[in-house]
Amino acid sequence: MRTNRIVAASAALILAAAGLTACGDDSASTGAAGDAVTVKIGTTDADQKAWTAFAEKAKEEGINLDIVKFSEYPPVNPALDEGQIEISKFQTINYQAQYNASAGKDLRIVGSGEINILGLYWKDHTSLDGIEGEEVAIPNDPSNQGRAINVLVQAGLVTLKDGAPTLTPTPADIDAAASKVSVVPVDAAQTSSAYHEGRPAVINNNFLDRAGIDPQSSVAADDPNSELAEPYINVFTVRAGDIDNATYEKIVEIWQSDEVTKALEEDSNGTAIQVKRTKEELNEILDNLTKDYS
């Protein structure tokens, strides 16, 4: 995910910059239990199968999702803070922490979604055999760079210097003498080019399909259950006063349903793994990361 420095703007500017449109039925429908609740939720992923399944399942549960589409990440958090939407599902904990720190806000997490596994790909190879001494291309943007390095750490290919930041390492934090490979930071879009040139590369999921790379062909990947992966859990975000809203908690539960999970797996070619963590755990991770960025 691309990291941007976010500055809160007026609601009017937010809506204009996002180029957002609402979809779905604004009027609440009536179910067996009475009038359905309408919730305005913002996302950048509304066109995915998972979101269609999500809206259908929510309607069955008496929640009418008024999905607000954003074309890019930066306007979503300010829109939530200004009340243009009620809840969002588009970002990782890491991205939210950077927003809270840079904008001086206190948006909170009401529940977890999935984590998208980040993999190391090496053309015409099915294992790490022979990789020692190779240069590995990694994304150069701050958020993905640190995570890519940790993929290599978990694979036993890179060792960090004593005292290096655990969650957000940079190439300067790598102990070259103790590592089996070196890293070459490049634009995230160029990692797939490095792969096709025969170099091992850590490649973001959104570049795999367009580059004709099988997501299941990675020779190494991060562990979604590892502490190192925690900042990259996708989350449902609300304003602080809504942290205990029962409807929003129900929305999280619906996202974790079998129907949505199946559609999510299809969208991601099996690289998205649902993560179930309590909101207390998620907000503790958020607060620790926010401190690091403050």
UniProtKB/TrEMBL annotation:
<feature type="signal peptide">
    <location>
        <begin position="1"/>
        <end position="22"/>
    </location>
</feature>
<keyword id="KW-0449">Lipoprotein</keyword>
<keyword id="KW-0732">Signal</keyword>
<protein>
    <submittedName>
        <fullName>MetQ/NlpA family ABC transporter substrate-binding protein</fullName>
    </submittedName>
</protein>
<dbReference type="Pfam" id="PF03180">
    <property type="entry name" value="Lipoprotein_9"/>
</dbReference>
<dbReference type="InterPro" id="IPR004872">
    <property type="entry name" value="Lipoprotein_NlpA"/>
</dbReference>
<keyword id="KW-0564">Palmitate</keyword>
<comment type="similarity">
    <text>Belongs to the NlpA lipoprotein family.</text>
</comment>
<keyword id="KW-0472">Membrane</keyword>
